[in-house]
Fold this protein.
Amino acid sequence: MRHALTAAAAAVAILCALPARADTPVNGHGIAMHGEPKYKADFKHFDYVNPKAPKGGEVKQSAIGGFDSLNPFIVKGRPAAGVAAIYDTLMAGAADEPFSQYGLIAETIETPADRSWVAFTLRPQARWHDGKPITPEDVIFTFNLLREKGRPFYRLYYANVDQVTKTGERTVKFSFKPGENRELPLILGQLVVLPKHYWEGKDFERTSLEPPLGSGAYKIDSIDPNRSVTIRLVRDYWAKDIPVNVGSENFEFIRYDYYL
């Protein structure tokens, strides 16, 4: 009996040591281009930030030329500097790693070993600045909108995505065309998510100086066309305590002054 138990234990150990099958999905808090992410699932903040950094103050930066739009995703117009800060992405990168990402809007990322698809489960607390939740429908809407009406860059960048579908209450899945592309799950992690309920019924391809709805750490505070744009910290920002944000986004105001 002892020998039988020993043999069984050895068999279990061997099975556990075998690599995961290509069709076995790995679900986690982050993803790396190669190997494992530096930061484990229980990390509190990135190593290079001060988690107790005070919030406040103003920083001024320079920009050249001018601007006539607050939409940085379209061909028309000259978008104002800094406006991307009003939006969140599915994942966020770490400055001390070459190419790893950790959950921001997405709570978890799931992908098989062959990376033939990727699924993101959104955080239940993820919110737009108007208080409405960020949903898989927003992600799907954004992806299709950028490919159809965004800069031509997006059609090329997402060319290997076959389809995007909602697979759960808070989960969205991107299925890929045949052929290995290990970078594609990380590319989709960089996806800026736009609010479907704000953009539906609006002309996305038209330039506008109307401050759009976002979900990020900053809102547009004031604009002086072709002269300056100021963004202001959102004090009740939904993701301020998410590990990728702790210790960052500290300035109360960021102002971009334009010069000819």
Notes: The first strand starts at residue 25 and ends at 28. The two ends are 86 Å apart (CA to CA). The chain has five helices and twelve strands.
